[in-house]
Design a protein that fits this description.
InterPro entries: ABC1_TM_dom, ABC1_TM_sf, ABC_transporter_C-like. This is ABC transmembrane type-1 domain-containing protein. Keywords: ATP-binding, Membrane, Nucleotide-binding, Transmembrane, Transmembrane helix, Transport. The protein has 132 residues and is mainly α. Helix content is 87%, strand content 0%. It has seven helices and no strands. Helix 3 runs antiparallel to helix 5 and helix 4 packs antiparallel against helix 5. It is elongated and about 80 Å long. The protein starts with a helix and ends with a helix. The relative contact order is 0.09.
Length: 132
């Protein structure tokens, strides 16, 4: 279905899209949808576990359990927010570099005859090594 949707795109829609972006989207970004199904249950499991464990700690310790759970929330929520933003920035940088590398490799493969004919293998090898 993705191929049919891509083939239906107009020329203006694909004008700003490089080959590297399309290949990266189809290979890497689509796999994230598969991973969502694995981790989707954590949305309801984690709050359930938190309430359940807070109850058990309450049974052993009493009111001090609420202080401990509150301290955990105050420590973990900001750290998770910061790590989420940092991961998002790093993932964007990786995606941009991957797009550039895939675009370069696609151009090299499409022009391999010219590269071989003029014996430009070494300069292009350096370009690929630099892109990696």
């Amino acid at each position: 279905t993705y191929l049919l949707q891509i083939l239906r795109l107009s020329k203006t829609a694909t004008g700003h899209t490089t080959t590297g972006q399309v290949v990266n989207l189809l290979s890497n970004d689509v796999s994230r949808f598969d991973k969502v199904l694995m981790f989707l249950h954590y949305v309801w499991i984690m709050p359930f576990q938190t309430v359940l464990l807070t109850y058990f700690i309450w049974q052993f310790v009493g009111i001090s359990a609420l202080v401990g759970v509150g301290a955990l929330f105050l420590q973990t929520v900001p750290v998770q927010g910061y790590l989420g933003k940092l991961t998002s920035k790093l993932r964007l940088k990786v995606a941009l570099r991957t797009d550039e590398r895939v675009r370069l490799m696609s151009e090299i493969i499409s022009g391999i005859q010219v590269i071989k004919m003029y014996a430009w293998e070494k300069p292009f090898e350096k370009m690929v090594a630099l892109a990696r």
